[in-house]
Structure to design on (318 residues):
């Protein structure tokens, strides 16, 4: 009789343990030790039973963690996640396990160097982050699009990736050079360097250079300067068709190098650029020049191969 009771007890215990495992991933501190991550992962528990079922995991394609998350342990259970947003985070260790992740949005980070991204990742958006060390992006995975908004780069920027195609700096501040080292996949760059953050207003007085030389597939460049750009090197960008370099505040004596760029068809430059060598640009058909007041003067290419501005100063661009 006792043996029968003991056997029955064991069967009941086994049944309980089995039912617990069938319920899914437990939502507890053992599986999600970071309290902020735990709090937001709970939003995926649609029936609020304290577990993530297989169906709930399959349905969880996006997750926003609004609070500071220092430990992403447990994020790997969300195997179908495609979009992850981390606000005011400080650690990305573990995201490489998200094999379906396509878009990563982060803010409040100070260093992204050495981060392992999942092979599926296509786009990164970075907001309100201050990089105190030189920002380096040298990942050759599938990331093709990266955007920075309201970020500050205290030691400059270096991109060294053949996969990246589009880069956008929106209202950012930089205190050193911006270099794209043989980024053969890069096709489009938009840069507006003029941080509105009053703490970094001194950056408007800092000069910097932009080096895009040798980016073989670069098609379009748009650089708007709230800071002082001393040089823009686009030499040997054989497929470059259009570029725009505009000073928004005080004009700077900017040097622009477009040697070895035979595909350029259109250029828009600020008034501070008094000369431009277009001898390697046989297809350059139009250009314009911006005055400090923001007015644009259309220019034309003459029979002798030079471009003259249509304003009364007739600035020679040669």
């Amino acid at each position: 009789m006792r043996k029968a009771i003991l056997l029955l007890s064991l069967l009941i215990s086994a049944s309980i343990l089995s039912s617990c495992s069938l319920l899914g991933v437990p939502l507890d501190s053992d599986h999600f030790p970071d309290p902020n991550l735990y709090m937001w992962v709970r939003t995926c528990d649609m029936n609020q039973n304290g577990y993530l079922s297989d169906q709930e995991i399959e349905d969880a394609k996006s997750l926003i963690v609004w609070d500071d998350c220092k430990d992403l342990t447990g994020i790997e259970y969300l195997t179908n996640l495609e979009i992850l947003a981390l606000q005011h985070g400080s650690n990305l260790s573990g995201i490489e396990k998200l094999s379906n992740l396509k878009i990563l949005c982060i803010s409040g980070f100070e260093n992204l160097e050495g981060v392992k991204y999942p092979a599926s990742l296509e786009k990164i958006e970075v907001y309100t982050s201050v990089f105190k060390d030189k920002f380096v992006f040298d990942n050759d995975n599938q990331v093709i699009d990266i955007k920075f908004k309201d970020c500050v780069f205290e030691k400059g920027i270096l991109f060294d990736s053949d996969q990246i195609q589009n880069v956008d700096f929106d209202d950012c501040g930089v205190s050193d050079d911006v270099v794209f080292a043989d980024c053969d996949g890069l096709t489009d760059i938009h840069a507006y360097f003029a941080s509105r953050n009053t703490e970094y207003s001194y950056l408007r007085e800092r000069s910097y250079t932009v080096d895009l030389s040798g980016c073989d597939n670069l098609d379009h460049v748009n650089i708007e300067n709230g800071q002082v750009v001393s040089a823009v090197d686009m030499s040997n960008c054989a497929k470059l068709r259009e570029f725009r370099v505009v000073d928004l505040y005080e004009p700077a004596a900017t040097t622009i190098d477009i040697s070895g760029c035979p595909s350029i068809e259109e250029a828009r430059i600020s008034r501070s650029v008094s000369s431009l060598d277009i001898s390697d640009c046989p297809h350059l058909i139009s250009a314009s020049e911006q005055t400090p007041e923001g007015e644009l003067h259309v220019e034309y290419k003459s029979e002798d191969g030079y471009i003259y501005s249509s304003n009364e100063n007739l600035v020679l661009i040669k």
Summary: The CA atoms of residues 122 and 142 lie 6 Å apart. The chain has two domains: 23-127, 134-318.
